[in-house]
Design a protein that fits this description.
single chain; mainly alpha; 3 helices; rod-shaped
Length: 141
């Protein structure tokens, strides 16, 4: 019976050691759990801002960047519109000049009817250009 008691005491000591080891592991895991929960809470709260360093510039918000992009595009649109207007004006001048030259060539060649037609076309182009300028002035462009 003494051998059985010794064997049982030895088993009991192993169980106590295993239980103590498990308690230590549980305490370590609970500490890790608390650290992880604190880290998660800090992550959800956002990055910490050091109190000693004031924030010089705020990061651009997406809406601010979009507003800047829209303003840049509007400025570019205005520039292109002005360039287009200048090109249209130059094109009208060239067309008027060419129709007058064609009319003069036909008159020199003896075809006064074609010359007269081209002069009329030139005058109509000039009148439509003047009308377009009048409409733009009315609209305030």
């Amino acid at each position: 019976m003494g051998a059985e008691v010794a064997a049982l005491q030895e088993k009991l000591q192993r169980y106590e050691a295993a239980c103590l080891e498990q308690k230590t592991t549980i305490q370590r895991l609970e500490a890790e759990k608390k650290e992880t929960e604190a880290a998660l809470k800090a992550y959800r709260a956002g990055p910490p801002v050091p109190a000693a360093l004031p924030q010089v510039t705020a990061p651009l918000q997406p809406a601010t960047r979009l507003a800047g992009d829209v303003a840049d595009l509007e400025a570019r649109k205005t520039e292109l519109s002005a360039a287009l207007s200048q090109i249209e004006d130059l094109l009208q001048l060239k067309i008027k000049d060419l129709t007058r030259r064609i009319a003069r060539i036909y008159e020199e060649a003896g075809d006064s009817g074609a010359g007269r037609d081209f002069r009329r076309i030139s005058n109509q182009l000039e009148a439509s250009g003047n009308f377009g300028e009048f409409i733009r002035a009315l609209l305030g462009e």
